[in-house]
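User: I'm new to structure prediction. If I give you an amino acid sequence, what do you actually give back? Let's try with this one:
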Amino acid sequence: MERTEWLKRIQETVEGLYDHIAPEYWVKYGFYGNETQLEYLQKFLKRVPPQSVLLSAACGAGRYDGVLLEAGHNVVGTDQSAGMLARAKEHFPAIRYEKIALQEMDFHEEFDGATCMDAMEHVFPEDWQNILRRFHTALKPGGFLYFTVELPDTDLNASYERAKAMGLPVVFGELADVVESSYERLKKFAPLEAPDELAGEVAYHYYPSLEQVRAWLGEAGFVIEEEGTGDGYEHFVVRRG
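Assistant: Good question. You get back a string of structure tokens that encode the predicted 3D arrangement of the chain. For your 241 residues, that looks like this:
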């Protein structure tokens, strides 16, 4: 199987997953108060000027957008899922939401800061550097980015070997051996009836090493201001150099 074709299918699957679960999002999940994310979000907010223009990239249903608004900032939210954006708009009508994937961002020095939480784990290895460069271009000189990198809690070796045995064109660090089969099962459920664990299986994940993430940040022109580990993620607050 050719990797480019396979990645296109996986991206469509991930988008389909979030569109499918969007109707249930606030009913089933509500506000997700990851304590470390909230802590680092405040570290980020202390660095941006008052009444900043902020980008909430891969915002989903707007889980943390209310925090940005309450801090007195103007917010633009983007996501690849139209369904999730519809939920966000219901809750935060003051925010301008646009259907833009991380790989498609085309802003130029428009934002004092940007956030990207619970999203980079769904990014293909081929797209990481491109997305970081797009964040760099989207920020004003000296602007800040807060993003999270999910830490693996499963055996990546076993997943890699299963995927290779299936003939999938995976690279090490990808968790993708059950994505497509789980998606076919998920679609048989009504949104409020889909098991949480099944939705988790549908979501493609890629786990780069933290050393690789730091190298990519440097190549993209970012300087790490703060970094820490908590609640299953590595947290980065970085500045456009």
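You can read the tokens as a compact description of the fold. Here is one thing that stands out. Strands lie at 53-57, 74-79, 96-99, 111-116, 139-150, 174-175, 205-206, 222-230, 233-240.
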